[in-house]
Amino acid sequence: MAKKAAHYAEAERLYVSEYNTLDQISEKTGVSERALRYWKDEGGWDNKRNALQQNSAALHSELYDLARTLTKSIKSSLDSEVEPSPHQLYTLTRLVPLLTKTKDYEDASSPADVVEQPKGITDETKKKLRQMFGLE
Predict the structure, then answer these.
(1) Is 28 exposed, middle or buried (0-12, 13-18, 19+ CB in 10 A)?
(2) DSSP symbol at 19
(3) 121, 69, 106: which is closest to 91 by C-alpha?
(4) Mind listing the pLDDT tens digit for each residue in 19-67?
(5) Any idea what the Cα angle at residue 83 is, between residues 79 and 84, rounded to 5°?
(6) Which of 19, 21, 39, 133 is a Cys-bridge partner for 111, taking CB atoms 3.0 to 4.6 Å apart?
(7) What residue spans of 17-85 are helical by DSSP H?
(8) Under 8 Å between Cβ of 52 and 18
(9) What does the CA dihedral 12, 17, 23, 26 come to, rounded to 10 degrees?
């Protein structure tokens, strides 16, 4: 019981947030893999890990959708030869760097064995946005 009290929170963090395997956690904490498997099942670590992954993906997706909506609105204004709202321009220019930071964080914190297709704004789209708003 003393080992659980001393290492449970750290083992859970390593598994859920850092995507370590039970073998890696065992090496780092000195807790047997058998005990870690029991703790993992008892504590619902897989559910917590999945929820964390979904929340991260949801944040990036929502930011991307917001940027897309703002871009469409700005483009519509420009097509109508109406000057876009300064608020929209400001929000979009502040949002684009956040998209890349969020994506970089997701890539760094996702498990190495999961191969995902690239999501988010491409370098070409970033370049076009910078040109469109005179940032280049």
Answers:
(1) middle
(2) -
(3) 69
(4) 899 999 999 999 999 999 999 999 999 999 988 877 777 777 788 888 8
(5) 85
(6) 19
(7) 22-29, 33-43, 45-79
(8) no
(9) -40
